[in-house]
Design goal:
Blueprint: H1 6-16, E1 22-25, H2 32-39, E2 43-48, H3 51-64, E3 70-73, H4 76-81, H5 83-90, E4 95-100, H6 115-118, H7 140-155, E5 158-166, H8 181-189
Parallel strand pairs: 1-2, 1-4, 2-3, 4-5
Helix pairs in contact: 1-2
Length: 197
Amino acid sequence: PSPKPPQLMREIIEFFTKENEIVFDYFSGVGGTLIGSSLCNRRAIGIDLSNEYIKVYKEANKFLNLKEQKTIIADSIEFLNNPKNLKKHLKEEEISLILIDPPYGDMMSRPKTGEAIKKKQSDSPTPFTDSEKDLGNMDWESFLKTFNESILNSMNFLKYKGHIVIFIKDLQPDGKELNLLHADIIRDLNKIDNLQY
């Protein structure tokens, strides 16, 4: 639904990591981060709710003849709530880069505006799932709380001076609502000890 160009992901990964280090994407989708990691000789772990998206990643990866990265089909929020889950995949190693593009609250569950209407496309909502646990179905305040917990849980495995990179899209202002989603995320994450924007 929102693939990232693997070449762009490779550049970000190369900037923040060294060869053979571990990159973690717990909203991996169709695997742009995973392919980007393979393109620059990094190891990656990707988690996604959708078996279909992971299959797409594996097909693309096979077509490109790249090393297949580790994939896990799971609800990443629940997965990260139990430290043993990630620990068994990392063994005794640490993550160098957490690189994620989360669903931004219920953005996909809303009717489309802007480009969809200009291009005369459907304005119907396109949620990823119908699960209440899916971040993509949560109101913004619930999303922020759950997302922050996921960052705290994943940081337990991040090496000292490791990095977290988050893709986020702001919405158009709506009346008095500024809809600067990135500012809300930065504000909340900046309150976390040992995390600096």
